[in-house]
Structures are given as C-alpha cells and as structure tokens.
Amino acid sequence: MIPKKLFLTKGVGRHKDKLQSFELALRDAGIASCNLVEVSSIAPPNCKIISASEGKKYIKPGGITFCVMAKNSTNEPNRLVAASIGLALPKDRNLYGYLSEYHSYGETAKKAGDYAEDLAATMLATTLGLEFDPEKAWDERKQEYRMSGRIVRSRNITKSARGDKHGRWTTVVAAAIFVMDE
Asked: Where do the domains of the chain lie?
C-alpha cells in the first residue's frame, strides 16, 4: 500500500458545536465524505503531486482515506488560528520526502505556512545529510537547500481564520490526501 499520488487541500468551518465546525471545515476542504486515517509524515518515493481538483475525483464516499492533517479550533472571538501542511521533496524521486503538520494561534497564514515548510525541509535535509545552520532564517536555508541540488521543491498549504465574533467554534484544517488507486 504505497500511494502513487497525493494532493493538498484546506478548509474552514464555523458552528456553535466544535464537532460540527470540524465537519464543515472538512466539507470546505472537499474531504468530508472520507473515513480519514491520519498517518505520519512521509511522502512516498515517486509519488506524484496533483491538484486538489484532480485529487478529489478519486475520493469515494465512505472510503478509507489516508492523510496527514493539521487542524485547529477556537471559540474565542477574533482569535487567529492556523493549520498548515509543509511538503519537501528530494531531487531524486526514488527517495522519500517529508510532510509536516503544524497548527498555531496568533500567526498569519504566511508565518504558519513558512514554519510548516521549514519543518518538512529540515527533516528532509537532515535525512539527506545536508549541512545547514539552524539559526539562519528560513528564506536563507531554503536557498541553501535548493542550491545543494538535492532538495528540489518545498511548499505548504495553510488555512488561517479569525474566531467567529459571536463565539461560535471556528475550525481550520489543512491536509495532504493520499490517493491509493485509480
């Protein structure tokens, strides 16, 4: 059971009940009809990254669907929440890459997304034996990773939202969805 494809998706939901806000976030992300099984953070070798619109065509209602998911919720008015998935892939597609999940309070989508991407790229860099200075800013390390010629691509998908002004639950999700078959 090695996925051949994966796609990234995100969503937000608001409701008086926390569980229902999570369901609405999954609906917004287009994955509510799946039985989601969260797995750890490895992007399989030779796994093709496809668009969310293409990937959602493979979803079968009720199907067991493996994913890496980040989620966060608040019922505090105006509290900023974020959920992010980072992805880092090696140049050699026969090697595996990394996915990271990150969720935070009070951070913009840009800040949370950069952090998640940095996490994934750093895990991949250490696996590949790349030397780097962890004290350098992410943008500097990103350039170093790319210049090494061994990390070809990193990216993130992030959803952030402010808590509902009336105190309803606000839930954000970001997910990497694995496609097992066609």
From this structure: 5-179
Tell me the CATH number of domain 5-179, given options 3.10.450.50, 2.60.120.200, 3.50.20.10, 1.20.1560.10: 3.50.20.10
> In Å, what is the CA distance from 24 to each residue of 21, 31, 52, 61?
5, 10, 17, 16
Q: Cα separation of 28 and 15, whole Å?
A: 13
Q: Are 41 and 100 in contact (CB under 8 A)?
A: yes
Helices and strands: H and E segment counts in the chain = 4, 9
Please give the residue that has the higher pLDDT: either 26 or 154.
26
Q: How far apart are CA 18 and CA 171, in angstroms?
A: 8
Residue 12 CB contacts under 8 Å (≥ 6 apart), including other chains: 24, 25, 28, 159, 161, 170, 171, 172, 173
Q: What is the mean pLDDT of residues 17-35?
A: 97
CB atoms within 10 A of CB 68: 24
Tell me the pairing of strands 97-105 and 42-43. antiparallel
- Entry pTM: 0.92
